[in-house]
Every structure is written in structure tokens, then in C-alpha cells.
Design a protein that fits this description.
15% helix; 6 helices; single chain; 323 residues
């Protein structure tokens, strides 16, 4: 798992008149993000090209109003901004659900023809049957906390249900309840990005993966000369020549200090989010910095009272036994 954006830096929850001021401009932001969408599975220029949301929002897609067309939305902190058309403009739906740090999921969880939002928190799915704030309509545990969630109509009955991917193994449920997987199988490689879709139009969702070729490992570089004045070790943290950083980078990025995650949100050997990188004095992208600087910024991060190996690199920290 990559370095999570620091929760301290996420937008605060606001209410009343102040909320009304900022609710509309999900697309009006200092750093607008763009959607570029195709209406055919072929190369070419985008059929739809518009700005909506901010560059560090999480994009979501669904048929939010049941009209048969999937449109875009974004999640910012614990808040969804949803459009009913694939165009820029104010959100058609704006509501809070879940907590910052939850993983958003989308599906038609009750088979009514409308896709709605949900979140995964640890090993727990919390799903809504309407695109609005409120308590979860469905709340159950399935899988493990570090699994990757997936959603689809896995048995063709018209209802989207949940599943998880663990390493190379998928575990799928045919109902939105806890229990053992109704189907489980191995597919793809552990570092592939899993995809779900009805790829042949038969009404059932099946899985696929997106695989980016990994570069051949480069010869181990000569130890980098660390200027004590430029990138000194930060007291109270593992020194730069500790094998902690080698093991962590191997887990996060295969020791590729210029890496970029498949979803485009995390960079460098230690997979910093740009917002976290800036919070510890970094400029540009983490992947553009030297290995020495990336380790120095990670040391600075660990001096923050809310930052630990466990909450900034959760999956790899568990694997490596780091606290």
C-alpha cells in the first residue's frame, strides 16, 4: 500500500451557510482535473472532454439516476460530488458518506437499475441504496482489511455484489452479506490492477486485469553520497543506510525510485502522495527527487505526531513487521 495522504490535510467537514458556498464548485478548483472519455473502444481523440473535480479527488462512475447512462463523480474526503451528465458544472448530488480514508465502491446493490455509492473500511463494506447521506443500508464484513475490493453482477441476477482480491486470488460473493466466497479462483499477477465488467454483453460481470510491463531490475547502484548538510538523517528515525528503507522500497515499488502507481496517485520508491510530499517540504513530484531526498522526506514524515510506518505504509509495514 502506498503512502496515504495525511488526513490532517483533507478538507474539513462544514455545515450550514458555509457548506452552501463550497458545495457547487466541485469542478471550480485551483487544480481542475479532467475527464477524457471515449464512446467506442478504439484509439482516437476523446468524445467527451471536460473539467470536473480537483486533481487529488478520487473519481467514481455510475448510472446515478437510472437513465441507462453512466456519468462521473468524485469523492473528496468523506464527500461525494456526483454529476448526472458527462459535462463540467456544479454537482447534481452532493452528500457525505463514510470517512476520509475509506475506499469508495459503486454498484446497483438492490437491483433497482440505479447505481449508488458505498465504502470499504478495513474488512467492512458499508453500502447505500440511494445517493444520499445517511446510515449504511447494508453493513457487513467480507475479506481482510488489506484486500482490494471489487463490485459486479457476478451471477447475472441483476444485483451488484461485492468481492475482494487477495494477491492473485479473487473471492466473490453472490449476495451483499458476510460469509465465505461463493466463487474463488486465481487470475493474473499480484501487482496487476483488477478490472470488472460485462465484457461480452451476457449480463454477468467477469474479471480482467491491467498489467504494466515491469522494467528489468537495474544493477544495484553505487551507494549514493549523502551530503550531511543537504540530506542529513533526522533524529529519532531509521538512518538512511538502514535496510528498513531498502525493504520498504522493494515492497512499495520494486526499488524503482522513479515509480508511478497504476492509478497515478503515488510516486517514487516509497510511493508518496504529492500532497504528503509537499507537507514535508518536497517540491515537484517525489519520483523526480533523488533517493536520498525521498528517504529524508520519509524521515521527516515519521517525526509528525500522527505519522507511523503502520498508518503511512499499512500493507507493507504489516508484511515487514514495521511499527
Amino acid at each position: 500500500m502506498p503512502v496515504r495522504p495525511l488526513r490532517k490535510l483533507l478538507p474539513a467537514v462544514v455545515t450550514g451557510a458555509v457548506a452552501a458556498v463550497i458545495a457547487a464548485p466541485a469542478a471550480a478548483h485551483d487544480h481542475d482535473a479532467r475527464f477524457l472519455l471515449r464512446n467506442s473502444n478504439a484509439a482516437g481523440s476523446a468524445d467527451l472532454n471536460f473539467a470536473y473535480g480537483a486533481d487529488d479527488d478520487t473519481p467514481v462512475v455510475g448510472d446515478w439516476n437510472g437513465d441507462g447512462t453512466q456519468t462521473v463523480g468524485v469523492r473528496r474526503g468523506d464527500r461525494y460530488f456526483i454529476r448526472n451528465s458527462n459535462s463540467g458544472g456544479p454537482a447534481d448530488m452532493d452528500f457525505h458518506f463514510g470517512r476520509p480514508g475509506d475506499t469508495p465502491v459503486v454498484g446497483d446493490f438492490n437491483g433497482d437499475g440505479t447505481q449508488t455509492v458505498g465504502v470499504r473500511r478495513g474488512d467492512r463494506f458499508m453500502l447505500r441504496n440511494s445517493n444520499s447521506g445517511g446510515p449504511a443500508d447494508l453493513d457487513f464484513r467480507f475479506g481482510r482489511a488489506d484486500d482490494t475490493p471489487v463490485v459486479g453482477d457476478f451471477n447475472g441476477d441483476g444485483v451488484d455484489t461485492v468481492g475482494v482480491r487477495r494477491g492473485e486470488t479473487l473471492f466473490l460473493r453472490f449476495s451483499n452479506t458476510g460469509g465465505p466466497g461463493d466463487a474463488s479462483f486465481v487470475y493474473g499477477a499480484e501487482d496487476d490492477v483488477v478490472l470488472v465488467g460485462d465484457f461480452n454483453g451476457d449480463g454477468s460481470s467477469t474479471v480482467g486485469v491491467h498489467r504494466v510491463p515491469r522494467p528489468e531490475p537495474e544493477p544495484e547502484p553505487e551507494p549514493e553520497v549523502r551530503g550531511v548538510e543537504q540530506w542529513p538523517d533526522v533524529p529519532g528515525t531509521p538512518p538512511a543506510d538502514s535496510d528498513v528503507w531498502v525493504r520498504l522500497a522493494a515492497c512499495e515499488s520494486n526499488n524503482n525510485w522513479q515509480a508511478r502507481s497504476a492509478n497515478g496517485l503515488y510516486y517514487g520508491g516509497l510511493q508518496f502522495h504529492p500532497r504528503t510530499w509537499r507537507s514535508v517540504g518536497g517540491t515537484g513530484l517525489p519520483s523526480q527527487a533523488s533517493r536520498a531526498e525521498q528517504i529524508h522526506r520519509a524521515q521527516l514524515l515519521l517525526t509528525q505526531p500522527w505519522a507511523t510506518f503502520g498508518n503511512q505504509w499499512p500493507a507493507c509495514s504489516r508484511r515487514l513487521g514495521l511499527n
